[in-house]
Amino acid sequence: VAAATTPARVTGSDVFAVGDSVMLASAVELAAALPGISINAQVSRQASAGLSIVQHLAAARKLRPVVLFALGTNGAFTSRQMRQLIRAVGVYRDLVLVNTYEARPWEAGVNQVIAAAARRYPNVVMANWFATIQHRTSLLWPDEVHPQPSGARLYARMVAAAVRAARSEGAAGP
């Protein structure tokens, strides 16, 4: 398998995405931005549930070359869980972590864990939803968490750009 060296080579068929209702609200746009992507998103999903899904697929050798992990809206995402996720994904895959935007007590902690992993591990890239949406909150529904259709398009473009960045950097090796 040749390593993707240019952004144009990335396809959705390279990507497995696991997320919560924010991803679910953006799933149609995400599928349009990355055709062939496998999306497993569910309302109220916690990071621990997403971690279990990734671990199961990794153990079954069914994990795609890029793992998109977008969980943290519904509760904490701990450093321990992050280490477990990194271990499950392995060094030969890219991990794209989407940080969170919601005014809840765990938001800052989740985003810190994600940013730290992106700085520490060469095969981890952060998709910065917080920075992308914080000055465009009119694109969210009144709950100020879930994207409206125009917000979903923005989410999908941001995620697709992060996936392409991960693959074009060759972060995960050969």
What does it look like?
By secondary structure, this protein is an alpha/beta fold. Helix content is 43%, strand content 13%. It is built from 7 helices and 5 strands, in the order βααβαβαβαβαα. Strands 2-1-3-4-5 form a 5-stranded parallel sheet, with helices on both faces. Helix 4 links the parallel strand 3 and strand 4 (94-98). Helix 2 packs across helix 7 (149-168) and helix 3 (47-59) packs parallel to helix 4. The termini are close together. Mean pLDDT is 92; it is low at 1-8.
The N- and C-terminal alpha carbons lie at a distance of 8 Å
Estimate the helix proportion, in percent: 40-55%
Major sheet:
5 strands, parallel
Question: Which H/E pattern describes the elements?
Answer: EHHEHEHEHEHH
Structure at a glance:
This protein is of the alpha/beta class and 174 residues long.
Features:
43% helix; 13% strand; 5 strands; alpha/beta; disordered N terminus
Break the fold down into its secondary structure elements and pairings:
Elements: E1 15-19, H1 21-25, H2 27-33, E2 38-41, H3 47-59, E3 66-70, H4 79-89, E4 94-98, H5 107-120, E5 124-127, H6 129-133, H7 149-168
Parallel strand pairs: 1-2, 1-3, 3-4, 4-5
Helix pairs in contact: 2-7, 3-4
